[in-house]
Amino acid sequence: MPYSPGAWPTLPAMMLGRAREWHARPLFRFWRDGGWQRLSWGEFAGRVASLAAYLRARGIAPGDRVLLVSENRPEFPISDCAIMAIGAITVPTYVTNTAADHAYILRDSGARAAITANARLAARITQAAGEAGLDLLMTMDSPDWADAIATPADVAMLEAECREASREALACLIYTSGTGGTPKGVMLPHRALLANREGLVPLAERLGFSGNSYLSFLPLSHSYEHTVGGFLLPSVGMEIVYSRGADRIASEFAEIGPAVVTAVPRLFEVMRARMLAQREKQSPTARRLFDRAIALGLRRLDGPRLGLVERIEDAVLDRLVRRKVRARFGGKLLAFVSGSARLDPDLSGFFLALGLPVLQGYGQSEAGPVISCNLPWANRRETVGPPMAGVQTRIAGDGEVLIHGDLVMQGYWGAPELTAQALQADAEGRLWLHTGDVGAIDDGFLRITDRKRDFIKTLGGDMVSPAKVEGLLMAEPEIAQAVIAGEGKPAIVALVVPAEGHEAAVKSAVDRVNGRLSNIERIRRYATVAPFSVEDGTLTPTMKVRRRIVLDRNTTLVEGLHAGH
């Protein structure tokens, strides 16, 4: 009797079930040995079953935590699925983590085993483990891996076993990226990730995702990519194409022709800057056509409505300008999703006006992580879209966004007090996730205005939103990154990273932003600083600025700015 989709109790049950249906269908495309390679669903299932048998033979038992440290490659989801299939718990971690980062996660999670991509990462894990060592450490580029995926195994038997597991069983521990404070281990059961899938299915079916490709370049260790790129999109029939890196992304758009791509706001900022730089190299006529395409595109989005002559002009510009832009992105994009941080409406408007389907979404690791997303046919770019199917949302008295549904985590690993703060029961005993974000619901669309804990209180008692001011600064083409300060001070100051080639124009950009701010929000002084990066610890692996670290490292500079006010 066929197993009913939607009734899958666990992620491995879903993936192995799909492999049985789609045995010969391509699942992964990846670059290796100088060319693109493919791995089918059937090959994936066989390797999952073999690795699961190998891990069992090496003593990995249900409930054990296994660190998974790898760049995006097929061996990551194979390992992920195999770990979960035997009832163990995956702990995905970033390849950019230091030995100290890994040591903290090993200690906090109690993981006694790890799978890494290569010997270099294995050495870092060994250093992190210290004298205690690990019960199992294997690398994907070693002979041990080849032996593991050649272990005799019965795929059908493993699938049957996975069908008997509980949706409430813990699937993974996702450690928050830690923009402030110590990372916490978010306990996500299979139920949470499957609930995310059930919310995505209507969108996938309406847009026709099945049979198309997804270009994956956000780290699979991040909660969004782990859920969406690792399980959800494959399960609706998409081929997952692993990018060779952010520096290749532009060429891969044209080469792959993806239907779905997920990005962070920083990438959109970089792409807009490059497109505007290319515009400057064009003839005056081409520049006028480009600008007019944007102007009319924004009119279609925001009004007032185009007149007859303007509609004809807009249609001509669609052929002359927007079609060329879409072709540079592969010509097949159905959804270009932005997440991880706020996407400025002016920035998304730029791409939407040029005919690219940019959709802002919202989520948290604690919620599986997808909570809401705009839709191509209902896209209000000043919002993060309507909540996904199955997600209940309400706004607390202090403006905090609360979430209820199967997507919500079980809690924080080993932290009952933090769990009690984040998950609070209502009068009916239903647990609501307190997101820490401040927002509102307008006609069913969720709007996020700030982080509850991130307001700056100036010396005069005024409350200033750093997210708003920093977002406006980074929306200016002359500014790549920005952090503001002013807690307990008479005014707001800023640390600004100029966009390449625009160092001399930063003041004009700051002046433009100040023109859109209230008096208490305006930037009184600023200083330019070196770019923030993942390598120096000022950015998270998903390109979020670690504000506290930036400010701590620039204390003298910030104090000097305040003193000069």
UniProtKB/TrEMBL annotation:
Q: Which Gene3D superfamilies match?
A: 3.30.300.30, N-terminal domain of ligase-like
Q: Which UniProt keywords apply?
A: ATP-binding, Ligase, Nucleotide-binding
Q: Which GO molecular function terms does the record list?
A: ATP binding; long-chain fatty acid-CoA ligase activity
A GO term from the CC aspect:
membrane
Query: What are the residue boundaries of the AMP-dependent synthetase/ligase domain, all occurrences included?
Result: 19-413
State if rRNA-binding is listed as a keyword.
no
Keyword field contains Nucleotide-binding: yes
Top-level taxon: Bacteria
Q: Which reaction does it catalyse?
A: a long-chain fatty acid + ATP + CoA = a long-chain fatty acyl-CoA + AMP + diphosphate
Q: What is this protein called?
A: Long-chain fatty acid--CoA ligase
Species lineage, top-down?
A: Bacteria, Pseudomonadati, Pseudomonadota, Alphaproteobacteria, Acetobacterales
